């Protein structure tokens, strides 16, 4: 090299052979030609050519002169750059240039030439590529490590390469760029922040989206240099995250984006950075914590991420943010859950508990997103979510916010459709979510109309999609119905009934609109609009829209005709779709995309359109049932035993016969049902009879050939069939045939003559049939029925015990173990009651005689003869039959008014019967009569006695019954102007009846006994808690006023008995204590002066000392007793056990029943009868004497829907 330096001083430049001097005196073209020859020479040289290296040293120095480095022609510059690249290759490892400034100029010059790589279609691209390849292979830039300005050179090189890379470059270009840049990082002593920024900036999302190739280049570079560059990356994040020095780099604001990208590129780049994030998760700055949470959500949730397993402390710290105080952070964590569940099922266990807590978050948006996260994962793959997560969604279907409930219901519906209806995931997945269908239908029990409408929509779109072909749709419905639980079946039946009722309301509205205009018709239209409004969401707004719809229907005949078609019983599913589409199209407007009126109309049309059931559908459904009967159905494949499928199918048909009777009107359907009648299965035949009863009103004229075959079958069923079939056969004849009297006579005569008390088993069906004939045609068989009831039913059947009962300690046995004699006696009781209900008057005093008979059965515990020959289960059955018969008669005004208070109280005590099943069945019958507004209001007071029931479920059921009855009556009063029936409907009026009933409770013996008074208090609170739950129109003051008024009266049942009146006043005092302790408004002025029922209380006294008890406190003894009683009240339904408990705690048909379990005390009944005799001896003849003959009465007395309570 010393020789070379000597040559340099000579200044003589030697050119390759054939190349003349290259100077500014030649043309550009000539210069390019000569340079190409020089390039060729250097290309052919290698490092071992020492002579040539020495020969061309001055040429190498000449080419690095400013003349070439700053030449204006790009071709010249390119050729010079190629020469210089080869020179560095040839003279390596020592470059011929010693000046640091010259080296900087040369490398900056080469870097500028690399910009030519950008145009891949350029004619010179290959030379640019050669330049890149050469410097990358030789690692020429490594010479710059010793220069002070090396960072500037490297930074400019990196920027140039990131700028020029594009999608036109092949893999080789990409590879050489990575080689060139990686050698600088890996072999250099340091990486400056500026150089690091030049690489990292390409990872920032904004840059990444602008130049994907630059991102890929940076990604490849970082992967290649991960080990070498990691300390510098760590230092950068330390400066920004831990020390807060954001000025160290312009990328400080993108630090979290960079961490994510670097983690995705190579997690080893962040080995020392990730622990810093744990510190940031605990920052006091909400925004900073939120940024870190968003970052980690992406890192933990990434598909192939192993961060949770690799860094468990960070994972646990992140999970803690699910409980962060800042709402957006909790929301972000919940959103992350779906990605985590989908990409990392193994982390579901860790997430479950945190999602459970967040599913109860006070923020609606968070609860909503919990559902979205779980449902999203479940829809991707059901195995990703465990049962606990699905249960969180299930719970949210009862959320207080509609948006959350809707999301939960729609989420469950979509999961059900995918895995159960469409069969994705196989039978195991379908089994796992089999509960969803039941849960969705259970929501129909909610009071919100929005919930009910959504259930209807879910059913029509997800559970039994209406767009399926008819056969497939009915098959889907068939197996769905067969697999629903009992409550879901009831909800579905209720849904169809509600839709059917709304269809009738719309049809009524259409009929009213077509009538001539008048003030009365306008009022009728308005009333019907209000009824329809209550069946739509947001009734306040819906009212205006329904009024507008009524006006549209009045003006537009075409829309009116289409709506009439839609609500017509004969409308088919296809017609319904066309009508709905046409109506919405007609009412819609393209100029008004958001149309609240149209949305309301769509809601209405959704509810009334028969999209599932029509004549064709019923025919397909019956064929499906027949397939199951024939054994050709897919019952086992669907997971339903054939017998269950058949019974469920017939039950389904029975329900649809109520809601869609016209759809059954086809010869094919009736013939199939006729075939079912002839089957041996009693349930199948019974269901077919019920369907005929509901749908056969026009059979005689429309299907005479069916009628002629059906009549003999019905007559045979009425005479010799099972009791329930006989019942429905009689009602079928009554419904279908015009000359029913002739057919009834053909059945009545042989049955009446053939009654034989010695053949008890053959008595049950005839008595059932005769009972229903007596109810349907009492005048036709007046004389025979009078004799039948008086002589056969009472004397021969009820007053005789022919067969001794089985000795057992059980109080109840299954239906199939009940003795034939007991079954016959029950049918005898029912026959008497049905006859009276058919007659509907008491002119012959038959009602009084029957009531005395029923009272005698109750008084004797069911053993009317009191000979001790009956078994306990039989006695329980007869007590229940007598009590239910009393309830039936109480629903008719003519019989309600003759029921004495003693008889009412005796009936009420059955709800405390010692037999669990008697209490259960009686309360159900009581509830049903009250819900229909048929039983008078005093019977609601009977539920107060349930506070003493030792079984928690019975108390809870009684409370539910009370709540429902109170709500029904309040709703009825809102919808009807029932001022004249206020006393029989207003729930607050149950308080006087409750006080009177409790005052006559046989367990209430000692007036001042604290334990007995505590029981009275619990029973009062059982009713008052529900009545006082709402203080509408100052009802608390009204109740207080009623109690005060009672204390100004006397007990009408025993007005002259001081002890009876004292009991009444004491119960009033207890009630007053409850009212005063539980209400803050009781002392206000009562809105109205309450009126007490005159049959329970005498007229008020002007002045009476007993009213002063709770006013002046002049009775210290009584006050002290009440003070002892007035402890904090329990929640409704607290178990109260009297000293002589009369009720079993467990089910009575349990074979392990203990003979020593609490027995039924006759004290209650004897006390009642004793009180009755002492109060009014003439009204209570000795029940052991022979009963007088029952006589026939007229049938023209009309039934009352809501009985009026007698008032002052």
From TrEMBL:
Keywords assigned: Cell cycle, Cell division, Mitosis, Nucleus, Repeat
Recorded superkingdom: Eukaryota
InterPro entries the record matches: ARM-like, ARM-type_fold, Pds5
One Pfam family this sequence matches: PDS5
Entry annotated with the keyword Cell cycle: yes
PANTHER family reported in the protein's UniProt record: ANDROGEN INDUCED INHIBITOR OF PROLIFERATION AS3 / PDS5-RELATED, SISTER CHROMATID COHESION PROTEIN PDS5 HOMOLOG B
Name of the protein in its database record: PDS5 cohesin associated factor B
Organism from which the protein derives: Sander lucioperca
């Amino acid at each position: 090299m010393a020789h070379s330096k000597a040559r340099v001083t000579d200044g003589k430049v030697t050119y390759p052979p054939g190349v003349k001097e290259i100077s500014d005196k030649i043309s550009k073209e000539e210069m390019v030609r000569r340079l190409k020859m020089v390039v060729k020479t250097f290309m052919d040289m290698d490092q071992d050519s020492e002579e040539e290296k020495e020969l061309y040293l001055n040429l190498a120095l000449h080419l690095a002169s400013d003349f070439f480095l700053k030449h204006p022609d790009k071709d010249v510059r390119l050729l010079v750059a190629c020469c210089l690249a080869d020179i560095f290759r040839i003279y390596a490892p020592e470059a011929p240039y010693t000046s640091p400034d010259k080296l900087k100029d040369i490398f900056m010059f080469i870097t500028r030439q690399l910009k030519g790589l950008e145009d891949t279609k350029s004619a010179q691209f290959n030379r640019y590529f050669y330049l890149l390849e050469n410097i990358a292979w030789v690692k020429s830039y490594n010479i710059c490590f010793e220069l002070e300005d090396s960072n500037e050179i490297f930074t400019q090189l990196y920027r140039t390469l990131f700028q020029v890379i594009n999608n036109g470059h092949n893999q080789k270009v990409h590879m050489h760029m990575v080689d060139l840049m990686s050698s600088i990082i890996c072999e250099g002593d340091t990486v400056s922040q500026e150089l690091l920024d030049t690489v990292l900036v390409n990872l920032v999302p904004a840059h990444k989206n602008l130049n994907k190739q630059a991102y890929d280049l940076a990604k490849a570079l970082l992967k290649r240099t991960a080990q070498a560059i990691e300390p510098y990356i760590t230092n950068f994040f330390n400066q920004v995250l831990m020390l807060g020095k954001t000025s160290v780099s312009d990328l400080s604001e993108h630090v979290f984006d960079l961490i994510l990208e670097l983690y995705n590129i190579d997690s080893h780049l962040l080995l020392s950075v990730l622990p810093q994030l744990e510190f940031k998760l605990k920052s006091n700055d909400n925004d900073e914590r939120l940024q870190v949470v968003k970052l980690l959500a992406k890192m933990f949730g990434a598909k192939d991420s192993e961060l949770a397993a690799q860094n468990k402390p960070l994972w646990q710290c992140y999970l803690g943010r699910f409980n962060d105080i800042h709402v957006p952070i909790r929301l972000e964590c919940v959103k992350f859950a779906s990605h985590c569940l989908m990409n990392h099922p193994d982390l579901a266990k860790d997430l479950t508990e945190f999602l459970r807590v967040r599913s109860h978050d006070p923020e609606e948006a968070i609860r909503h997103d919990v559902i979205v996260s779980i449902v999203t994962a479940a829809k991707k793959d059901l195995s990703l979510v465990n049962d606990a997560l699905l249960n969180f969604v299930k719970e949210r279907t009862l959320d207080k916010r509609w948006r959350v409930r809707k999301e939960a219901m729609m989420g469950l519906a979509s999961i059900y459709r995918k895995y159960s209806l469409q069969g994705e995931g196989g039978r195991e997945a379908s089994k796992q979510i089999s509960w969803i269908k039941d849960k969705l239908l259970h929501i129909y029990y909610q009071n919100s109309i929005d919930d009910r409408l959504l259930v209807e929509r879910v059913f029509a779109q997800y559970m039994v999609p209406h767009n399926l072909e008819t056969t497939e749709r009915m098959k889907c419905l068939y197996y769905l119905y067969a697999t629903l639980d009992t409550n879901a079946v009831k909800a579905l039946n209720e849904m169809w009934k509600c839709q059917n009722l709304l269809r009738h309301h719309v049809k009524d509205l259409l009929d009213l609109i077509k009538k001539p205009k008048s003030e009365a018709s306008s009022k009728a239209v308005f009333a019907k609009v209000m009824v329809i409004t209550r069946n739509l969401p947001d009734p306040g707004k819906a009212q205006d829209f329904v009024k507008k719809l009524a006006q549209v229907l009045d003006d537009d005949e075409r829309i009116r005709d289409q709506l009439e078609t839609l609500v017509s019983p004969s409308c088919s599913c296809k017609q319904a779709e066309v009508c709905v589409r046409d109506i919405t199209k007609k009412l819609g407007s393209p100029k008004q995309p958001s149309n609240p009126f149209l949305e309301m109309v769509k809601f209405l049309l959704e509810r009334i359109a028969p999209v599932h059931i029509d004549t064709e559908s019923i025919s397909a459904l019956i064929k499906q049932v027949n397939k199951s009967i024939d054994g050709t159905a897919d019952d086992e494949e669907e997971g339903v035993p054939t017998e269950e499928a058949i019974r469920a199918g017939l039950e389904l048909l029975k329900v649809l016969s109520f809601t869609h009777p016209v759809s059954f009107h086809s010869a094919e359907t009736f013939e199939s049902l006729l075939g079912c009648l002839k089957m041996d299965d009693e349930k199948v035949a019974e269901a077919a009879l019920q369907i005929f009863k509901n749908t056969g009103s026009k059979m005689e004229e429309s299907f005479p050939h069916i009628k002629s075959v059906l009549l003999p079958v019905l007559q045979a069923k009425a005479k010799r069939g099972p009791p329930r079939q006989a019942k429905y056969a009689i009602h079928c004849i009554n419904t279908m045939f015009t000359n029913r009297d002739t057919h009834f006579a053909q059945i009545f005569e042989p049955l009446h003559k053939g009654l034989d008390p010695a053949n008890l088993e053959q008595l049950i069906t005839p008595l059932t049939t005769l009972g229903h004939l007596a109810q349907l045609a009492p005048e036709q068989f007046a004389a025979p029925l009078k004799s039948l009831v008086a002589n056969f039913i009472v004397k021969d059947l009820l007053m005789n015990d022919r067969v001794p009962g089985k000795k057992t300690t059980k109080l109840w046995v299954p239906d199939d173990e009940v003795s034939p004699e007991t079954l016959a006696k029950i049918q005898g009781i029912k026959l008497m009651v049905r006859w009276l209900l058919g007659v509907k008057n008491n002119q012959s005093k038959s009602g009084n005689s029957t009531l005395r008979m029923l009272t005698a059965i109750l008084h004797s515990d069911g053993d009317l003869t009191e000979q001790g020959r009956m078994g306990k289960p039989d006695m329980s059955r007869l007590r229940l039959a007598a009590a239910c018969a009393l309830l039936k008669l109480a629903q008719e005004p003519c019989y309600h008014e003759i029921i004495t208070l003693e008889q009412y109280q005796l009936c009420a005590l059955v709800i405390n019967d010692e037999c669990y099943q008697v209490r259960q069945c009686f309360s159900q019958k009581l509830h049903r009569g009250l819900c229909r507004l048929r039983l008078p209001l005093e019977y609601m007071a009977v539920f107060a006695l349930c506070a003493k029931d030792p079984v928690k479920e019975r108390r809870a059921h009684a409370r539910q019954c009370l709540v429902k009855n109170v709500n029904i009556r309040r709703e009825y009063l809102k919808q009807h102007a029932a001022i004249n029936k206020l006393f029989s409907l207003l729930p607050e009026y149950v308080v006087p009846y409750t006080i009177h009933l409790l005052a006559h409770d046989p367990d209430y013996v000692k007036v001042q006994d604290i334990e007995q008074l505590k029981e009275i208090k619990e029973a009062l609170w059982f009713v008052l808690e529900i009545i006082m739950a709402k203080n509408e129109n100052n009802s608390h003051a009204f109740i207080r006023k009623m109690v005060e008024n009672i204390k100004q009266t006397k007990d009408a049942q025993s007005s002259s008995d001081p002890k009876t009146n004292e009991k009444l006043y004491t119960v009033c005092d207890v009630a007053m204590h409850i009212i005063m302790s539980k209400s803050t408004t009781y002392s206000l002025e009562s809105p109205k002066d309450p009126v007490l029922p005159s049959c329970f209380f005498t007229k008020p006294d002007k002045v009476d000392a007993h009213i002063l008890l709770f006013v002046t406190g002049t009775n210290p003894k009584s006050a002290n007793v009440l003070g002892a009683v007035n402890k904090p009240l329990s929640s409704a339904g607290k178990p109260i056990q009297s000293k002589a408990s009369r009720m079993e705690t467990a089910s009575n048909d349990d074979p392990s029943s203990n003979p020593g379990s609490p027995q039924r005390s006759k004290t209650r009944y004897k006390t009642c009868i004793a009180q009755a005799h002492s109060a009014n001896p003439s009204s209570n003849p000795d029940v052991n004497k022979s009963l007088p003959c029952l006589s026939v009465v007229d049938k023209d007395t009309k039934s009352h829907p809501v009985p009026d309570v007698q008032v002052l």
